[in-house]
Amino acid sequence: MRAWLNRMRRALWRQLFFRMVFGEAGAPHTRIAPSTCIEGEAGLRLADHVFIGQFNFIDASAGLSIGEGVQITNFCSIVTHSSHRSIRLLGRAYTSQQAPVPGYIKGPIEIGPYVFVGPHSLIEANTRIGRGALICAYAQVRGEVPAFAIMAGQPARQVGDVRERDAVLLAQHPELAAHYEAWAGELPR
Fold this sequence. Notes:
The chain has helices spanning 2-17, 84-90, 162-172, 177-184; strands spanning 31-32, 37-39, 44-46, 51-52, 57-59, 64-66, 71-72, 77-78, 81-82, 105-106, 109-111, 116-117, 122-123, 127-129, 134-135, 140-141, 144-145, 149-152, 157-161. By secondary structure, it is of the alpha/beta class. It has one domain (2-162): UDP N-Acetylglucosamine Acyltransferase, domain 1 (3 Solenoid), CATH 2.160.10.10. The strands form four sheets. It has a seven-stranded mixed beta sheet with strand order 1-4-7-12-15-18-19. It is globular and about 60 Å long. The termini are far apart.
């Protein structure tokens, strides 16, 4: 029901204002596609210049912070809780179990500024992604992700550092160095 209400609100917003914008007050450059479902919106902290694409499921019930300039592509799941272990352990008794529920995982997620999240990625509870990280398509991310890390796989592991590629681009476009350094700092020498 809540997913349906979220979709209706976004559809109404799009009809009234003729653009794909939904979001927090004071975030005029943030865009969230109308097909994205956000649960637990009270727990969502959303910076500006964020793009969230089509057909994502975002659960912010245990706290979700999305930093400036984050790009979340399509078909991603960001979940601050997981009950699948509990349901397997308890079976039918899951619905009547009193807290704490064995195997139930709930925890916040922090996505640092200028992170890119590739299509079909899963970001699990109790995860912190450092600034500038790149999450490859189909990655399953859990735990600490260093700043500027390239993460791939299930479970995701670090396979590179985005600053190597950034250095090549900045060498081709030195006029952009000040913009890059404003959020990322200087490239390592």
